[in-house]
Amino acid sequence: MSYQVLARKWRPHDFDSVVGQEHVVKALRHALREKRIHHAYLFTGTRGVGKTTLSRILAKCLNCTGPDGKGDITDKPCGVCEACRAIDEGHFVDYIEMDAASNRGVDEMTALLEQAMYPPTNARFKVYMIDEVHQLSSTAFNAMLKTLEEPPEYVKFILATTDPQKVPITVLSRCLQFNLRNMTPQEVADHMAHILQVEKIEAEPAALRLLAAGARGSMRDGLSLLDQAIAFSDGAVTLAGVQSMLGVVDSSILVKLLRCLRDNDAAGMLSIADEMAMRSFSFRQALRDIASLLHRTAIAQRVPASISGDAEADSIRELAGAFTPDEVQLYYQIAINGRNDLHLAPDEYAGFTMTLLRMLAFKPAGSPVAARIAKLPHGGKPLEPPAPVSKAESAAAAPAKAESPAPAPAPAPAPKPKLKPKAPPPPPEEAKASPDEEEDLPPWVQLEPAEETIPPEERSADSEELDWQSLIRSAELSGLEWQSASRSECVELKSTGVVLKNSSSTLTFDNVRKSLERALSKRLGHPFSVTFQTGEVKGDTVWAQVNREEAAARQKLIQDFRSSGVVSNIINQFKGEVREDSVDWNTKPKPLH
Q1: CA 434, CA 419: separation in Å to the nearest integer?
Q2: Do residues 160 and 125 lie in contact, with contact meaning Cβ atoms separated by under 8 Å?
Q3: CATH architecture, domain defined by 460-593
Q4: Could you give the CA distance from residue 357 to residue 488 in angstroms, rounded to a whole number?
Q5: Residue 537: enclosing H or E segment and its boundaries?
Q6: Given strand 529-534, what is the order of strands in its sheet?
Q7: Pick from 39, 304, 396, 518: most CB atoms within 10 A?
């Protein structure tokens, strides 16, 4: 007898032998036991995950008569009756498999539906299995809709596809859909180990794990690779043989590569790349494996216990300690992009080495923040924030600064922010804590205006001198609150409330008024009332002032734009003009927040 490949020899013949599709098997078994059998099923999933296998098992369950020929529908086909044996051997007359890729037209579908009208010859049900059903033409789909919805009681349809998105919704709605998932590498490796044990072939566990990873979730692909590995390794499946067969780089070489990256050793990285080229390793696969290794390293940095079962746990822990999380993320992205762009390189070697050099070029500075601060001027010592000074002291200090010029190497001092009138002194507890807090401030805090150290809630109305415009601009207003406050005329303003006049009833609703009161009370730190009067707005409003500021800013931008060297040269040489209506100057201030 001729040799039969492992994928066919070890095809499951009952539900107990199916690997990795427990959720589908459970549902089908329950339906068979309770005799709740649908007339159309749709199996979806990638290649080699069991769609055709489940279809054949289901057909046997529906037509099995048992060893004595008196059996009924069952979830455990006997495998010895005429129907079971004929389906396994592929010549059961009432189980018809049709490939929609080569029989996709309406004529083929019409012929199938005409045959479906006749009762089964020697079976309980006539089962039609249409593989790759998404490749049927639209007219073929339309032709089968009526029969698919109301088939004869002895007809069952089983549809299979790798691309369910291309199946019309009218077909999907008539079927029970089961999504077959990809196999995990561990499931594929365990199944391979079981097969090899029965076949009495020796294999290294690491080699089976590598084959399972290469299967990409498909059991059929994994068994095909296993057949190839048995032939390649002359009977015994070894890790070295599988690596050579697949062109996969040994993980130890990739770890060495990342160690060179850690040490900033460009020569070492290029030497390893040359060795990989001499051994004809796949650079595309190498970049994929580097990304996978970095992925596991990133997981180990966040959840160390998750890699305890990994065969390369020690190397991953070493890399997790050698790189910071942001470096791992950066190198992972570079590896992914390098793999995607490999076809654009002059050759794969150039693309691979350029990706490695890019990792070195974008390597973040290794020194910690504290060491970098120590190299800054002033020895990295935090600068004390400027103390508030009076206007008289500022005026007296100005001539002195003008008379004593700054040394040439020193940078020009940043202008001091203008200080508003002093806020009330903080409580004793806060005043006591302030010196310590200022000593711990980092150098960049000195750039913040001194007024920001006073929370808005603690400012009093006196510090703003009850200026209505400043009050609503600094409050956290938005939507109708801002529209109502900015478009209203301020009739009377006191420390306890304000009277506003507005002609729009929409902006003076009670809920708008209450929302505005809450925002202003929070801003001032005490209850603040808002009262509306209905009438024509005659005085100035904040909204009008914002529009004036916007117009002034736009006019200044226009003048600066026209007077710039490039624009003025273009206008002079080409007699051009600036069309102000064609430019979005984007100068509107942000008064809300």
Answers
A1: 18
A2: no
A3: 2-Layer Sandwich (3.30)
A4: 63
A5: none
A6: 489-493, 497-502, 529-534
A7: 39
Q: What is the largest CA-CA distance in the chain?
A: 117
Q: What's the fold here for domain 251-361?
A: Zinc Finger, Delta Prime; domain 3 (1.20.272)
Per-residue pLDDT, 505: 65
Instruction: Output the pLDDT for position 261.
Output: 92
Instruction: Report, in angstroms and rounded to the nearest whole number, the Rg of the chain calculated over CA atoms.
Output: 39
More confident site: 479 or 313? 313
Task: Extract the tokens encoding 384.
Answer: 């004390």
Q: SS3 of 130, please?
A: strand
Grouping H, G, I as helix, E, B as strand and the rest as coil, residue 502 is strand
HSE of 10, CA atoms in CB hemisphere, 13 A: 24
Helix axis angle for 348-361 and 325-340, nearest 10°, is: 160
Angle between helices 185-199 and 219-232 (to 10 degrees): 50
Q: Is residue 466 within 8 Å of 409, Cβ to Cβ? A: no
pLDDT by residue (tens digit) across 372-429? 444 444 444 444 444 544 444 444 444 444 444 444 444 444 444 443 444 444 444 4
439-478 pLDDT tens trace: 444 444 444 444 444 444 444 444 446 678 788 788 777 7
